[in-house]
Amino acid sequence: MFKSLIIYEFEKFWFKKINIVCLIAILIVNFLSLKFALQSNKAAEMTDIVFSSSLNFHITSLQEMLLTAFNAIIITFCILSFHEEYRKGNLRMTFMRGISIRKLYIAKSLVMNLNILLTILIHLIISLLIALIILPKTSSSPLYFKEGLYTISDVVFFSIRYYFLAYLSLLTFGSIIEVLSIKCKSVAGVLGLSLGFVFLNFIYISYVSFLLKDYPISDPMVLKYNSISLVFVQAKGAAYFAAGFTDVFLYSMIIIYLIFKSLSYLAFTNKNYLE
Amino acid sequence: MLRIILSEFGRIFSKKSTKIIFLITGLFPVLIFYFFQQRWGIDYYIVNGVNYSLNNLNYPVTQMLEYNFLFLFIILPLFFSESLSSEIDSGGYKMILLRPFKKWKLLVGKWIVLMLTYFSMLLCVFLINFLIGNLFLPHVKFTSYYNINENLNPFDSMVYNLKFYLIILIVHLAVLSIISFLSIAFKKTIIAFFGSITLMIGGMYISLPLQNILFNTPDVAYSILGGTYELLNMLIFILVSFSIFGVALWMWNKRIGSIA
User: Fold this and answer.
1) pLDDT tens by residue, A65-91
2) List of chain B residues whose C-beta atoms are within 8 Å of the C-beta of residue A76
3) Do A206 and B35 make contact, defined as CB atoms within 8 angstroms?
4) Spans of all domains in chain B
5) B204-214 pLDDT, tens per residue?
6) Alpha carbon of A32: minimum distance to chain B alpha carbons (Å)
7) Where are the domains of chain A?
8) Helices (DSSP H) in B73-102: which residue ranges?
9) Is B14's Cβ below 8 Å from some Cβ in A?
10) What pLDDT score was predicted for residue A123?
11) Pfam families given for it (chain B) (predicted)?
12) Which residues, at least 6 apart from A246, have a Cβ–Cβ distance to it below 8 Å?
């Protein structure tokens, strides 16, 4: 039963054209990143971190697009999977078959997490391919927040950690949008609150930098305060984590994810919905 | 036409989101003043590397960078897409279409109302900034602006400020053309919203003049008023916006009966 629920959710997800458009958008996003990379390569040395090569383009492009395009994709996924189905009452049709609302939520979450993973993996594959074909091939490359040049094995290790935290940050962002999607009555409300949340994050980061202006920007105290901000984690935290600077961003993401996932679960499985 | 406009006004102002956007519009200049001037003590602004000190006369035009970003990429797409596509998507617009009005008048009525509403928001921002400038900033009798050699008196400065806001208004209304087009083409709020942002950001990657107009709108306005801007870029921008408005109106006439 649960297996068929997952397959049903998966089919429903990919049946929606907008989700397919989001997937195609990753290709466009990669080409926009490539254009930006080619432009910045003209003014940069091979040892500069902004220089994109076949070794590091998948990291620089994700760093550039995680906060914007990927968050937009997550908002779209959540609005379509949670808001539209839950608020428009489409889910009531599902519950006519005696399916447990809890199991449906778990299936929905699993499918969502799997699809986000798929999205990020597709980005990785496309960016690697684009970089191999178009960007200069190098045997070593600089990495964010690390001194010197690194060979392919170090880049692979860095990439795994970077992509892992980027994925976790997207899941966390998704869990926050899930709560908003279930609670808000209109799409505009979800969009407004989601972007308001991102905007508040920016204000929080500015406030922390003002509050701790006497500390260096990579001081553990500054990083600890900033770890609460999802936007900071996506902009810099993932790179700090990948460089082995600190694990505080990993813990903060897990905690925020668990809190919002629980809230989302409680809101979704509310019995009043079925009455 | 007047009845269509009044009906649109009634519907727009009955929405909670419009009230919230007006609230943000009113609060934003106050927050900017509180953080930038009161907390962080910034008493200057920079245009193309030249520093100018803030005073009561120039204050309204110097605080628009953050406002431009917030409104152009978040608030306006949300406001316009909710007004244009949510009614079509939910089917509520059928009730309006039943009335014996010409189809194009309905869209033009919507545009007029949205433009006037946004104009009043921008006017609000100007008045609040003007008030803040006169209450809290150093009072001067003359002030200078980017690439304007003579010092302007309060009247000329006010004219400069109003022209500056007019340029911002023209640039921001381009969003309405994109949203109109996307709302009629796809009718879903989420597509109109993200589609418009994607088109703007994509355009910024492709064209540097477009990047300047959308991202550095205040700097472009200073340059236009200072006489250093390549006006052809702005002319093309306005022409493209008008063309999109035209295409949207044509599509509306063709499709609205079948999609609403």
Assistant:
1) 898 889 999 999 999 888 888 877 777
2) 190, 194
3) yes
4) 2-259
5) 878 888 988 98
6) 7
7) 2-274
8) 76-90, 94-97
9) no
10) 94
11) ABC2_membrane_4
12) A220, A223, A240
